[in-house]
Amino acid sequence: MRISHVVKRFGDFTALDDVSLDIHRGEVVTVVGASGSGKSTLCRTINRLETIDSGTIEVDGVPLPEEGKELARLRAEVGMVFQSFNLFPHLSVLDNITLAPVKVRGIERAAAQERARSLLERVGLADQAAKRPTQLSGGQAQRVAIARALAMDPKVMLFDEPTSALDPEMINEVLDVIKDLAASGMTMLVVTHEMGFARSAADRVVFMDAGQIVEAGAPAEFFSHPRTERARDFLSKVLSH
Ligand SMILES: Nc1ncnc2c1ncn2[C@@H]1O[C@H](COP(=O)(O)OP(=O)(O)O)[C@@H](O)[C@H]1O
Ligand SMILES: [Mg+2]
């Protein structure tokens, strides 16, 4: 995925200020930065949940189209997992996972269900298929959301603070699933406040501040020797307790 010189404004406010980032196949990039630095906006523009004012975003050399059928097809190649799960409350876990493959991809229901069951097994929830999302813990719901995104066979997965809404004891069960996915070779962009995870799971860490990518580099390098004052200031705040 190639993000080149992307600018996103909300009125006079510049939320993304000339952001460029390449994510290679199989690479895991974690994004850290203070609240309001533009991390969610970056995820949302990659998925065209937000339009951009200038710049380009390409997946496999193909620019993201503005709208229409082509956009729907390309969007399906980018799986997104949000902080707040966004599962359909009136559908069972299994139906949450099969809905898009059946409706968007036209996959036969029985085949979609079989795939959904194997994905549920992969995220450790084989026995939860018939439940409604409200009957699950937060950690379970987020693992269903991950299975749902995977059911579309995305080329890239975006995670926007996937553990921020979770009770502390559930964070690791979700991070473990994301780590397994990384080990399987999935290309991923993960916005996170979990600095241990950002350091251990990533091939590269990106630090954002005020809508800009201020640093991008190897995790050990970034966490031990941040080059900029802005990164040093951020790390001193998040690592001091
Ligand atoms: N729809 C919007 N309208 C106006 N301002 C927005 C909108 N979405 C985000 N912003 C602003 O853009 C900035 C970056 O937001 P966001 O990407 O959510 O930051 P982060 O995810 O790093 O906390 C914030 O100042 C936020 O208030
Ligand atoms: Mg955010």
From TrEMBL:
This is ABC-type polar-amino-acid transporter. It is found in: Cell membrane. The gene is artM. Signal peptide: none annotated. Keywords: Amino-acid transport, ATP-binding, Cell membrane, Membrane, Nucleotide-binding, Transport. It comes from Actinomyces howellii. Its main location: membrane. GO terms for cellular component: plasma membrane. It catalyses: a polar amino acid(out) + ATP + H2O = a polar amino acid(in) + ADP + phosphate + H(+). Pfam families: ABC_tran.
